Amino acid sequence: MATSGKIIKCKAAVCWGPNKPLSIEEIEVAPPKDHEVRIKIVATGICRSDEHVLSGALDYVKFPIILGHEGAGIVESVGSSVTGIKAGDKVIPLIVPQCGKCRCCLNPESNLCYKNYFGKCDGTIMDNSTRFTCKGIGVYNFLGTSTFTEYTVVDDISVAKIHDDAPLDKVCLIGCGFSTGYGSAINTAKVKPGSTCAVFGLGGVGLSVIIGCKVAGASRIIGVDINTNKFAKAKELGATECINPKDYDRPFNEVLAEMTDDGVDYAFEVIGNTEVMESALSSSHFGCGTTIIVGVAPSNAKMSFDPLILLTGRTLKGSSFGGWKSRDHVPKLVCDYMNKKFNLDKLITHKLGFEKINEGFQLLCNGESIRTVLTL
Ligand code: PAD
Ligand code: ZN
Ligand code: ZN
Predict the structure, then answer these.
(1) Backbone torsions φ then ψ of 353, nearest 5 degrees
(2) From the CB of 272, is ligand 1 less than 6 Å away?
(3) How far apart are the first and last CA of the chain?
(4) Residue 203 Cα to ligand 1 middle (Å)
(5) Global pTM?
């Protein structure tokens, strides 16, 4: 490519600090170094985790930063030592890398990687710097991906090559929200046929949990949200009933216990609210219920519960990126989507041009959108 090895000037949505609108700026994107890949982003979803940074809920994030982590694009160029990926390939950047060599990567039960960005949390990629500059100032990277930019540079262990015919404006959701929710049901909970599930929070991730529970054969899927506008879509995607905790003036776990013969088999918290996590845990059956935490709580938030609640046989687990080993499974999920094993199109409620990114965040905050996909 003509741009290979050169600095690219392009547009990006820069976040200069919390509680400020994103600013579309011209940035410079340096060429990929050893084991790095430069990607032309074609489409990106807006996930609640991006908004957590904007609202200041994650106080460890450094600024200025380019957010966005649910993208898909086309490789522009690759650095030295990159194998298996070349310019022109369609790819999805990955929030959880897969080095293939560490203790987690070698354990079939784990999908984390020692080289993950959650632990690192310093706004850089593996070589401890980023390839972005704006007005002469270095700009940080988010979750090793940064997709709110026309071009990004990611580590080669954090990129999955996908099918040449994949529609990028749809499969971008496989980069975070869809895979996270769907995998929480399939991989982390291992939902069994005939079981009863409760999903707390019916945003893009929660609705993807519902899709997973349905594919796994759950017989009852109870959607829980304080925004009743989310119920119609939840039912369309597989919820058998939907309830609003605000309609009850007693502890919500009691309500669910009555409805489900003493508690659900699987409870999913997909909001990031520690009180709801506690409520989900007590809503799971005392002898055989499993609770999965998917929501990301604000920094320093604490969950508290009487340990006796677990002693009778409950299980509490967490799930990041739905338990998928990213580079192995993302290409397969894209093929499963193309083969109609699941349909994620209904999660996309809005499509906007990249320059309308702040409008996209507004739609999420107003509870009007499930996923807005921005096209670049
Ligand atoms: P979203 O904001 O679209 O959906 C959250 C839903 O929860 C909304 O429909 C709200 O109305 C509802 N809600 C809020 N408060 C309550 C409450 N007290 N009781 C019931 N319902 C409530 O977010 P999303 O679906 O994009 O993301 C959900 C969470 O998952 C969020 O915390 C995000 O950061 C996290 C996430 N985790 C991972 C992971 O790998 N674990 C990946 C992606 C997102
Ligand atoms: Zn996300
Ligand atoms: Zn690893």
Answers:
(1) -70, 150
(2) yes
(3) 19
(4) 6
(5) 0.97
